[in-house]
Amino acid sequence: EPEVTQTPSHQVTQMGQEVILRCVPISNHLYFYWYRQILGQKVEFLVSFYNNEISEKSEIFDDQFSVERPDGSNFTLKIRSTKLEDSAMYFCASTIQGINTEAFFGQGTRLTVV
Amino acid sequence: GESVGLHLPTLSVQEGDNSIINCAYSNSASDYFIWYKQESGKGPQFIIDIRSNMDKRQGQRVTVLLNKTVKHLSLQIAATQPGDSAVYFCAEIRYSGSARQLTFGSGTQLTVLP
Fold it and tell me: Å from A108 to nearest chain B CA?
């Protein structure tokens, strides 16, 4: 069964450092997403990406964040100058069409900012 | 503000019994609803969805009911099994500003007792 894969599974970084979280969406999917889940809380939308550009973003996704599809398979989330409150699980997801279709989620990257 | 929320944070059921997980939403313009299952350390996994032009949809051992009059969504799991133990999130597609976003509720922890 096709799946979304994320690397690394766990990332520890010092406050103020930059991190890049990587995702490989399902190969024939066209829409890509990043979500965040702070421990014990609900999953929160960050950004959606289609046709090599951001299509929607939440208020959480400020100038500290950026996304990129550097090649035909990877989709990355960059967090600049990390803060303690950025510690969370970050999930990548993809859909074959738009948001009204089934989203497949990766296993997540646990980001710990120390 | 408008939100998707759950009535109960935890639910314990005996193995073999049926489970019912409830969810309330407040945005009458939402037109697509999804139930996700999240096991510990994993990403959300799609269970079943329903569009607002329907009031019931059945899958394998699962049924989703949508009551638009009272803005209520429920997930019924038949013959609950130990592998069903997880956190269950309802989610809706709704507008946030001008963008359509997948918005998650806060989750219900389902525990299946032997």
Answer: 6
